Amino acid sequence: MADLRLRVLSYNVGGHGAWWSRRHVEKVARAISEASPDVVGLQEVHRGTRHSRLEDQAAALGRLTGMAVQFGPSFPMGGGEFGNALLTRGEVRSTQVHPLPGTGEPRTVLHSRIALSESEIHFYVTHLAAWGRWGRPARTMQIAGLVERLKQSDGPFVLVGDLNAPPNAPEIGTLMAAELFRMCGDDIAFTHRFMRQRIDYVFADPGWTTTSYQVIRRGPSDHWPVLVELHREIADAAVPAGRSSHEPSAAEA
Predict the structure, then answer these.
(1) What span, in angstroms and rounded, lies between the C-alpha atoms of 193 and 190?
(2) Residue 25, phi then psi, degrees to nearest 5
(3) pLDDT averaged over the chain?
(4) Does residue 100 carry a pLDDT above 80?
């Protein structure tokens, strides 16, 4: 048996904040590094937009934290791109960007296979539609697409993201009713400093045990990062053979 312990961070970095503060990304990187995660899912990441002062924020965070990085675009914005990103201390074996259904701003899920501690996990990062109850129809469609994607996982997986809905929202109930995973941590601590609601999550398949959960109240974003420690026993310690690669979907082509 392989004993796998994993520190997971979900963080909506509010990359548009770089428009007002040149140190925004630096402060985000500091909050990440202080948490010492093994893998990080990031939302609201800008690459080459006016709001980011034309900076590739994912690449900058990879450089500042010393972690491997992958960016998954959701839609064009301001001359650049807006989307999700992954940081990890492990080896990224493949990455795909899958579009989610729904109206309004296009949304995606970034799916990566990561080799960590002689084991491999599937890691998903997403960011669903905003605008409170007015965005509920879009989020409901996006959650249906997300569930279908997760059903295809063939190994241990973790899902993180800003779902823009509190735990008692109907669309979160639909997500949990799929019984594909468990919500990590309680549903009380809020993650958005102004709305004072929990809308940022870490989920893990039932093979994981949550050993700790913490909302880290620091960083420059309007969202606080969520840190979860997970544990599981892996029957086969060997990492499946495969080359390290980036495998773009049609959405990235």
Answers:
(1) 7
(2) -65, -40
(3) 91
(4) yes
Q: Position of tokens 């495969």?
A: 242
Burial 33-71 (b: 16+ CB within 10 A, else e): eebebbbbbbbbbbbbbebbeebbbbebbbebbebbbbb
φ, ψ for residue 251 (rounded to 5)?
-65, -25
pTM: 0.92
Residue 174 dihedral angles phi and psi, to the nearest 5°: -65, -40
Neighbours of 202 (CB within 10 A): 24
- Written as six digits, the tokens of 79 are 């001359």
**CATH of range 2-234; options 3.60.10.10, 2.60.40.10, 3.10.350.10, 3.40.50.170:** 3.60.10.10
pLDDT in tens, 128-163: 999 888 999 999 999 999 999 999 999 999 999 999
Domain ranges of the chain: 2-234
Q: What is the pLDDT of residues 49-86, one digit of tens each?
A: 999 999 999 999 999 999 999 999 999 998 999 999 99
